[in-house]
Write a structure and sequence with these properties.
The complex is a heterotrimer of chains A (274), B (298) and C (375). Chain A is mostly helical and 274 residues long. Chain A has helices at 11-37, 54-61, 63-94, 100-114, 117-130, 137-160, 167-173, 178-189, 191-207, 210-215, 223-234, 238-259. Chain B is an all-alpha fold. Chain B folds into 2 domains: 1-57, no CATH class; 64-294, MetI-like fold, CATH 1.10.3720. Chain B has helices at 2-14, 25-57, 64-71, 73-106, 109-120, 127-138, 143-150, 164-189, 193-200, 205-233, 237-242, 250-259, 264-284, 286-294. The chains are: A mainly alpha (274), B mainly alpha (298), C alpha/beta (375). Chain A: It is a multi-pass membrane protein.
Chain lengths: 274, 298, 375
């Protein structure tokens, strides 16, 4: 991208157009979902002879989709709560601590984000069978919570790092009980970090597929698993309808955040790791 | 509620009781760390440790599994393919990601917002759906081929998917946001006057870039390299869906051993090796991880 | 597919599972479970959680989804409920892979009773102690010829890998044999083979000139070499709906598909895609009953029911399952015989897979096949 290009083509110009092309490349398959969702065929493809809204209709009328949606909420909510509980405990406990031990523990807490999903799949496939929680909600919630944990740790410790170290002592010296000091002074200051961690833990569970495929069979069918089944076994175009709606929702959410200003910018995107 | 049982879980495994609400704040902190770490040990490190242990235990105790893995031609082929595809995709992703991040920094506020939205959007759409969209776009009967033929760039359809090309494309698409965002975050921190300063001091544009801008953006690039390397080694769904069955990478191979051939010896041994490689990468890049937890974010 | 029950049912189930688990297990494991279920109970009280636990009176059938679900539901399950009204039949379409079966059996949480698999799986998994032995007091094993049954399962229907091709493209000279399938010069276009080795080696060896009666024991090296020859021009699919799509979209010109799915794509394309049974690789499906299933008795009743000649014909009509019960073959209407993989004429043109050979060699050969694909 530097000086090797022809003189007439400025390197920065070239970078800009390449960058735009990359963004188009990123959005391209998302755009392609929309016509596929209006396909008139019974398998996933572009429309053949005309457009049809049948697949949207099926998305809302078939119980399998509604059930899996409910199940996904039923797994993601407790999983995110559990992740928050563990992650928040750790961050509050480790706050303002130094040393190799804490550093090691921090990295361990990030493990579920770093270790490849297939290893989690193998590990939990085995472990949950061993303790009799294979294909159970409790087991799925537990595994999803662990997968969401790193996001809680990342975002909470990021917001803790900007809290004044003497906050708690100050509150105590003014007569607050330890609990009051925590609830009234510390937690409010890191509420965005907590919210962000919770949201990301929720989304992690909401989107989890690889491990879920290995630890569940009949009792637990989350939304991604329903997508997997209908794509893999049937090439069902309902998936395109679902994808289009997800796209619409995401666009609206992005629009809302950009209108509501910068507050939500503190949400950790994957770049939090940097 | 959850808290007591979570603590009980930790306690159970520590084999020791600890006081959860003593008088001084410091001990509460200790309790919180110990409790959460014990949960992590019980619910995470134990299952992972079991995988490692199994690799030394089934079917017979010893290091025989590792010995046979190193001699297994199939594993060689799969690992070789994984390394080749991973380095290619990581290289491409970093190159394109760096350029795009640069374009983001250079863009005006509106254009930047739009481009950022485009970068973030794929993160919210299931990778399963995205992969099938690629198939619809790129297969010989797909839109891209018909456009290329109509424009006269092609005589007959070419296979752009269900081969290694498709896998590389799908993986790069998946990883790009994870490369662009950290690089962009780092570049946005660079004082934009610095390269100009360098130029005014007599550096050529090329020198200003290589000697000033590139080193300053390096931490972001390193973070992106770390993220994408780890991701690329563990890819499972994308090669399985876009590879036409011929791009079997380590993760898919492990999954076949678990679901289809029931070869737990191979599955756990390969998982352990993959874990080791991941651990090595974490070791190499651990300073990046500390940064995230110990220091304020931008 | 799943029934929703709320907190109390869920807690009861956890309690039950704790009780069941704590008998005769090590202390370590019991404690672990207790604590975890305490965790689970508290989660259950936080939010409603669907608990699709198999009731005592429920029979859970695991199959591969797709067209198989409505057919099995409307034909087999409907008749089953008629005969045993107190039993509720539920389907799980998540795919009964060996790994899932092993995990379920080992976790003592066998949420499937009977799985739609095949005879070689009955041998493989049965020998590993993962399946129940056939209950001969319920199942009449003599309803199928002796070569189509094993200790852990009796054949339930025939299906075969058949040469499926683009009839418009090849016109009056369609590919007739596996030699044609391998002949990339005469028959242009890509090929589709399954990424599972069952049936593929037979095709390859036939294409290489091995006589049908000399196939077993399979010459693995020779077969894999033959696969290598067309590898570059072949897409290896993992599920049959993908293979159907490849043919429909014209991405491949010839594929080796299950006859049942070949019929489906033929109907979809109004005959543009066609198939025949010449040199078809005939496999024997068999219901596998999981070891320790909650409802073993009804599972074998299900197997016995599926041998009913009338139902076998109904399934042929709807799904293309070839009746394996000789009594059923007499009932097959003449117009259906052409698409019946088990008709005497079609059997004579096909090769019957040797389940015993695969049961001994499958794991190793499958990995070597992957080696060929991945290299």
């Amino acid at each position: 991208m530097s000086a090797s290009s022809p003189r007439s083509l400025h390197p920065t110009r070239l970078a800009e157009s390449t960058g735009r092309a990359v963004v188009v490349f990123l959005v391209l398959p998302l755009v392609a979902i929309i016509p596929m969702s209006f396909s008139d065929t019974r398998y996933l493809s572009m429309p053949h002879d005309g457009l049809s809204t049948l697949h949207y209709w099926r998305l809302f009328s078939e119980p399998a989709w509604r059930d899996s949606l409910l199940q996904s909420v039923g797994v993601a909510l407790p999983a995110a709560c559990l992740a928050l509980l563990i992650g928040l405990s750790f961050c509050l406990g480790a706050w303002q601590r130094q040393g190799n031990m804490v550093r090691l523990l921090q990295i361990l807490m990030l493990g579920p984000l770093i270790v490849p999903g297939i290893i989690h799949a193998v590990a939990y496939h085995r472990a949950l069978s061993f303790i009799g929680l294979f294909d159970s909600f409790a087991g799925t919630v537990l595994v999803h919570a662990i997968k969401g944990l790193p996001f809680v740790v990342l975002s909470v410790s990021a917001s803790l790092s900007s809290v004044h170290p003497a906050t708690l002592q100050l509150a105590r010296s003014l007569g607050a009980s330890p609990a009051q000091a925590l609830w009234r002074t510390l937690l409010p200051q890191i509420r965005y970090g907590i919210a962000a961690g919770f949201i990301f833990a929720f989304v992690t569970s909401w989107d989890e597929i690889v491990v879920t495929l290995f630890i569940t069979s009949r009792n637990v069918i989350t939304l991604p698993k329903q997508i997997w089944q209908s794509l893999f076994l049937n090439l069902d175009p309902v998936v395109a309808a679902l994808g289009s709606l997800a796209l619409l929702a995401t666009l609206l959410a992005l629009l809302a955040t950009s209108l509501s200003g910068s507050r939500l910018r503190s949400l950790p995107s994957p770049n939090t790791i940097a | 509620m959850i808290l007591p049982s979570a603590i009980a879980l930790g306690r159970e495994f520590a084999g020791a009781r600890f006081q959860i609400a003593p008088v001084r704040g410091l001990s509460v902190q200790d309790g919180l760390v110990i409790g959460s770490v014990l949960v992590l040990i019980a619910c995470y490190l134990l299952p992972l440790g079991a995988v490692v242990a199994l690799s030394f235990l089934v079917p017979v105790p010893g290091i025989g599994n590792y010995w046979s893995i190193f001699q297994n031609a199939t594993v060689h082929a799969v690992v070789g393919k994984t390394l080749w595809i991973s380095s290619l995709t990581v290289g491409l992703t970093l190159l394109l990601g760096y350029i795009t991040a640069y374009a983001l920094v250079q863009a005006g506020p509106v254009a930047r917002k739009l481009m950022l939205a485009g970068v973030l959007l794929p993160l919210w759409i299931s990778v399963l759906v995205r992969n099938y969209a690629w198939i619809a776009l790129l297969s010989p009967g797909g839109i891209v081929n018909s456009i290329l033929i109509r424009w006269g760039w092609l005589d007959q359809p070419v296979s752009l998917v269900r081969n290694s090309f498709g896998v590389v494309l799908g993986m790069v698409h998946y990883m790009l946001p994870y490369a662009i965002l950290p690089i962009y975050a780092q570049m946005a921190r660079i004082d934009s006057t610095l390269p100009h300063l360098a130029r005014s001091l007599g550096a050529s544009p090329r020198q200003a870039f290589i000697r000033v801008f590139l080193p300053l953006s390096r931490p972001g690039l390193a973070a992106a390299a770390f993220l994408t390397s780890i991701m690329s080694l563990g890819f499972y769904l994308t090669p399985a869906m876009l590879g036409g069955g011929k791009t079997v990478m380590v993760a898919e191979f492990i999954s076949i051993q678990v679901t289809e051939t029931l070869r737990w010896d191979i599955a756990t041994t390969l998982s352990t090796l993959l874990l080791l490689v991941t651990g090595a990468l974490v070791w190499r890049f651990s300073h990046l991880l500390e940064l995230a937890t110990a220091k304020p974010k931008t | 597919m799943s029934d929703f029950t709320y907190d109390t049912g869920y807690m009861q189930h956890l309690e039950q599972s704790v009780r069941r688990e704590t008998q005769g297990k090590t202390v370590h494991r019991r404690r672990f479970l207790q604590v975890l279920s305490a965790l689970g109970v508290s989660i259950g009280s936080l939010s409603f959680l669907p608990s699709a636990r198999a009731q005592q009176s429920e029979l859970v059938v695991a199959n591969w989804g797709g067209d198989a679900l409505p057919a099995q539901r409307d034909i087999l399950a409907a008749e089953f409920v008629k005969r045993y009204p107190q039993i509720h039949v539920a389907f799980d379409t998540t795919g009964p892979t060996p790994g899932k079966i092993k995990a379920l059996v080992e976790s003592d949480n066998v949420s499937w009773d009977v799985a739609d698999r095949n005879l070689l799986s009955a041998l493989e998994l049965g020998r590993q102690g993962l399946l129940e032995k056939v209950d001969e007091s319920i199942v009449d094993i003599n309803a199928v010829p002796s070569q189509f049954r094993t200790e852990w399962g009796v054949g339930s229907y025939f299906f075969s890998f058949v040469i499926t091709y683009d009839a418009v493209r090849f016109g009056s000279t369609p590919p007739r044999t596996w030699k044609d399938f391998w002949d990339l010069q005469t028959f242009k276009g890509k090929r589709a083979l399954r990424n599972n080795v069952e049936g593929v080696l037979e095709s390859a060896l036939l294409a290489d000139g091995v006589a049908p009666d000399k196939l077993y024991p399979l010459n693995v090296n020779r077969g894999l070499d033959k696969v290598r020859q067309i590898k570059a021009e072949t897409i290896f699919y993992s599920n049959t709906s993908e293979a159907q799509q490849l043919l429909r979209s014209g991405e491949v010109s010839i594929g080796s598909l299950w006859s049942t799915r070949a019929q489906g794509v033929k109907e979809d394309t109004k005959g543009r895609i066609d198939y025949h049974f010449n040199e078809g690789i005939l496999l024997i499906a068999a219901w596998n009953v999981l070891k320790g299933a909650k409802n073993v008795k009804d599972a074998w009743r299900w197997v016995a029911l599926s041998q009913d000649p009338y139902l076998q014909v109904a399934l042929l009509k709807k799904l293309g399952w070839g009746p394996i019960n000789p009594a059923a073959n007499k009932l097959v209407p003449a117009e259906l015989q052409a698409q019946n993989p088990g008709s005497p004429e079609n059997i004579a043109r096909q090769i019957v897979v040797d389940a015993e050979w695969y049961a001994r060699n499958y794991f190793e050969v499958q990995n070597r096949y992957l080696d060929v694909l991945a290299a």
